[in-house]
Design brief:
The structure holds two protein chains of two kinds.
Chain A: E1 2-4, E2 14-20, E3 27-28, E4 33-38, E5 43-47, E6 52-57, E7 66-67, E8 71-76, H1 80-85, H2 112-118, E9 130-134, H3 135-149, E10 153-157, H4 173-177, E11 182-184, H5 189-201, E12 205-209, H6 220-227, H7 230-233, E13 242-247, H8 263-267, E14 273-275, H9 280-292, E15 296-301, E16 309-313, E17 326-329, E18 334-338, H10 341-355, E19 360-364, E20 367-369, H11 373-383, E21 386-393, H12 398-409, E22 419-423, H13 432-438, H14 442-452
Parallel strand pairs in A: 10-11, 10-12, 12-13, 13-15, 14-15, 18-19, 18-21, 21-22
Antiparallel strand pairs in A: 1-8, 2-4, 2-7, 3-6, 4-5, 6-8, 9-16, 14-20, 17-19
Chain B: H1 10-36, H2 51-60, E1 66-70, H3 74-79, H4 84-91, E2 115-119, H5 124-138, E3 145-150, H6 157-168, E4 173-179, E5 182-183, E6 186-187, H7 199-202, E7 210-213, H8 217-232, E8 238-243, H9 261-270, H10 273-283, H11 288-311, H12 330-333
Parallel strand pairs in B: 1-2, 1-3, 3-4, 4-8, 7-8
Antiparallel strand pairs in B: 5-6
Helix pairs in contact in B: 1-2, 1-10, 1-11, 2-8, 4-11, 5-6
Classes of the chains: A alpha/beta, B alpha/beta.
Chain lengths: 456, 334
């Protein structure tokens, strides 16, 4: 029997074989721990699928980036010969995906990291000492640095302490800061969000983690009615310096209740700042700014971006101001606007857009509220054409509001309708092909660019 | 007559309690008059008949302690020492209001006096009060947080989440359920699985079962003192269920007709906290002139504050865009 490297998390594509706990020739029982595997989220134990003998170890311990389904060992089990002869059809042919769906999520990817390297950010004048790290590590650094700088900053949420965070963003913080400042809460979103708000009202600066923003709906009353409105209702007496953070948007294959984007929801509320970075560098700089901001900030991360790397300054005074977008690619023909995961989708479509001879301005908004209107309008006045890409549902969405703002501020400059490529107005389906269809894809983005450019 | 003046409460404190309760009663009555004159619009929720609870805590708490009220929070705000014109002015939507007319009856706030807001979403403020309590523990300061709420709150999830968290972290907090027997327009007993909506749930969170006559100012004061001391000394939270009754309906528009006449009459005539406390003061040989002196003083204060409020301008229209963002400037943000 072949033992394959299993996918131990929904987003795991590769893993590291940290350690073998058995050696060749060992007899094992079903359920015995064979090895420790490090995934994108955690170190997990690999159990033996059956009783038998370890015939051969095919992948040495310490090996990294082993693809899921790689054979890592052979197990001889009773009756094995018979089993081996049975042909098990594994993925005989790739699933048929209807037209329009993005079949190309990995190939042709232009990484955010490489683009940021090319792009000198006009806001950053300093020469930073930089290191290539993941967004997960960048967020962790931001939290750690701010907790060192300011003793009023503390972190709370489900599984953030002992377990190191469900997505490992808070890894190691409990050891560094202790249980007073890194607080595991019960599964009581309303309760711990309210508590965080109360703590902020008396001068602390909580970072309130939602394991995913799907669960923030349990606390939406606290975020909207307490955090956002207290300053106003109290005539300026109570402010709530707090960061609500966690993964937002569709992850991969986790179904309708765990896949949705809340950017439109939160950006609707006066009193809330909304930030949604697309890469590690921005994530660090913006999270630090958010922690220092005296207002409630909804900081929307994305599970699928946690593992993405870019060059991130190591200095603790590296900040990216809230409210400043980034022109990540400069062109002349069309303005394509995205944020968070949709920036990656735009970059996936870039080769096919460029193939048409169209040179786009690509704007990564980074902050949804406040919005960098100056940068957007400047670009639109140059290109005269706009495509907005958002993962969330298109109905009464942030993208709709953005297109309203653009038409009312740049009316005389527009040469075409504004096209919005949004998530489909359906609960997120589970099946792979349907899930891809439900999210904005390369073909849709390219078609929208063609349409606003009147190109066939 | 027995000399009880030198008991644990004493004459000075009793007069303080008297003055406090009277202020809450007379301001609330004035608020009602102002509705009738159409000078206060919108809805509002009076605490007439429930003054002993807020009053006793007002006397027992120290400067710097935090309190959290519900939308029935005029009395609780005044009990911390907020100005009468600040409260009445806010109810009238005037510039002199505690929040410059931006919050209104249901959101009275006065941070300087420790009033951390009044909340009109049932249950929300119990969890928020845990936050100020956590901050006191975090900073090793000695403030106590007190959170008032009604019997109806005991059936919402936040009540249970808050008690659990207060207990697991032993927060310096006192939860005070004012059980006035009716959640809005329905008898609490009809919609609650236990007889005592708060106290019978206490054991689920390893808290003591505390039930007190919320219309007896002395008993209320003693109970408040014990719970506040426990919290201040680092021994964790308490949950108090204080039995009381509101003299009027749930809100301005509610005549309260769902309550049996006999029941209303009994509470108004035999169990009114103010009437009974006046009698008690006399029994304690406190000079009636002292008692009436306090009455006239408060009466005068309320009249003066009413005039100030009536003469205060309405908010400047520029106020619409202030206080949305902590670092000022609506425009920058949008």
């Amino acid at each position: 029997m072949k033992i394959l490297l299993p996918a131990l998390s929904p987003t795991m594509e590769t893993g590291n074989l940290v350690k073998w706990l058995v050696k060749e020739g060992d007899d094992v029982l079903s359920g015995d721990i064979l090895a420790e595997i490090e995934t994108d989220k955690a170190t997990m134990e690999l159990e033996s699928p059956d009783d038998g003998k370890i015939e051969k170890i095919l992948v040495k311990e310490g090996s990294e980036n082993i693809s899921v389904n790689t054979e890592i060992a052979l197990l001889s089990v009773e009756g094995e010969e018979i089993e081996e002869k049975i042909e098990i059809p594994i993925e005989s042919s790739p699933p048929v995906i209807p037209n329009g769906a993005d079949t190309n999520t990995k190939a042709n990817n232009i990484s955010m990291g490489s683009l940021l390297k090319e792009q000198s950010n006009s806001l950053e004048t300093k020469n930073w000492s930089e290191k290539e790290i993941t967004m997960r590590e960048a967020l962790n650094q931001a939290i750690e640095e701010e907790m060192i700088i300011d003793k009023d900053v503390f972190l709370l949420g489900e599984e953030v302490a002992e377990y190191d965070g469900a997505y490992k963003v808070t890894q190691g913080l409990l050891d560094k800061f202790g249980s007073k400042r890194v607080l595991d809460t019960p599964i009581s979103e309303h309760g711990f969000t309210g508590l965080a708000i109360g703590a902020a009202m008396s001068g602390l600066k909580p970072i309130c983690e939602f394991m995913t923003f799907n669960f923030s709906m349990q606390a939406i009353d606290q975020i909207v009615n307490s955090a956002a409105k207290s300053l106003y209702m109290s005539g300026g007496e109570i402010n709530v310096p707090i960061v609500f953070r966690g993964p937002n948007g569709a992850a991969a294959r986790v179904g309708a209740q765990h896949s949705q984007c809340f950017i439109s929801w939160f950006s609707h509320i006066p009193g809330l700042l909304v930030v949604a970075p697309s890469n590690a560098r921005d994530a660090k700089g913006l999270l630090k700014s958010s922690i220092r901001n005296p207002n409630p900030v909804v900081f929307l991360e994305h599970e699928l971006l946690y593992k993405e790397k870019s060059n991130v300054p190591e200095e603790n005074d590296f900040l990216i101001p809230i409210g400043k977008a980034n022109l990540i690619k400069e062109g002349s023909d069309v303005t394509i606007i995205g944020f968070s995961m949709s920036v990656q989708r735009i970059l996936n479509a870039l080769p096919s857009i460029e193939k048409l001879g169209i040179k786009p301005d690509i704007i990564d908004l980074r902050s949804i509220k406040p919005l960098d209107e100056d940068l957007i309008y400047k670009s639109v006045k140059k290109t005269n054409r706009v495509v907005i890409v958002e993962d969330g549902w298109g109905n009464t969405s942030f993208g709709s509001h953005l297109s309203y703002l653009i038409q009312s501020n740049c009316f005389d400059y527009l040469d075409s309708e504004i096209i919005k490529v949004s998530g489909k107005d359906v609960p997120m389906p589970y099946a792979e092909n349907l899930e891809k269809l439900a999210l904005p894809n390369t073909d849709e983005i390219t078609s929208a660019v063609k349409k606003v450019s009147y190109t066939n | 007559m027995e000399d009880k003046l030198n008991d644990d409460i004493g004459e000075a404190k009793r007069l303080q309690l008297w003055e406090m309760m009277l202020k809450l009663r007379l301001v609330e009555k004035k608020a009602y008059d102002l509705f009738l004159q159409n000078l206060i619009k919108g809805t509002s929720h009076l605490a007439l008949g429930q003054e002993a609870i807020a009053g006793a805590f007002g006397v027992a708490l120290q400067e710097g302690d935090y309190t959290f009220c519900t939308y029935r929070g005029h009395a609780h705000t005044l009990a911390r020492g907020s100005s009468i014109e600040g409260v009445l002015g806010e109810l009238m939507g005037r510039q002199c209001g505690l929040m410059k007319g931006k919050g209104g009856s249901m959101h009275l706030t006065d941070v300087e006096k420790g009033v951390m807001g009044s909340y009109a979403i049932i249950g929300a403020h119990l969890t928020i009060a845990n936050g100020t309590a956590l901050a006191s523990k975090y900073n090793k300061t000695k403030e106590v947080s007190v959170c008032f709420f009604g019997d109806g709150t005991t059936n919402i999830g936040a009540f249970h989440e808050a008690l659990n968290m207060a207990k697991i972290w032993d927060l310096p907090i006192v939860f005070v359920c004012e059980n006035n027997l009716y959640m809005e327009y329905t008898a609490i007993s009809e919609v609650t699985a236990v007889e005592h909506p708060a106290a019978d749930r206490a054991s689920a969170y390893s808290l003591d079962k505390i039930i007190v006559d919320g219309n007896d100012a002395d008993e209320m004061y003693r109970t408040a003192q014990t719970a506040i001391k426990k919290a201040r000394d680092g021994h964790g939270p308490s949950l108090i269920e204080a039995k009381t009754y509101r003299h009027s309906g749930h809100s301005r528009a509610d005549p309260g007709k769902y309550r049996p006449d006999e029941e209303v009459k009994d509470w108004m005539e035999n169990k009114d906290p103010i009437k009974n406390y006046r009698q008690k003061l006399l029994e304690f040989n406190i000079d009636e002139k002292t008692i009436t002196g306090i009455e006239s003083k408060i009466q005068q204060q309320v009249e003066e504050a009413t005039n100030i409020s009536k003469n205060s301008p309405i908010p400047d229209i520029k106020e619409i865009y202030t206080d949305v963002w902590a670092d000022g400037g609506y425009k920058w943000h949008n």
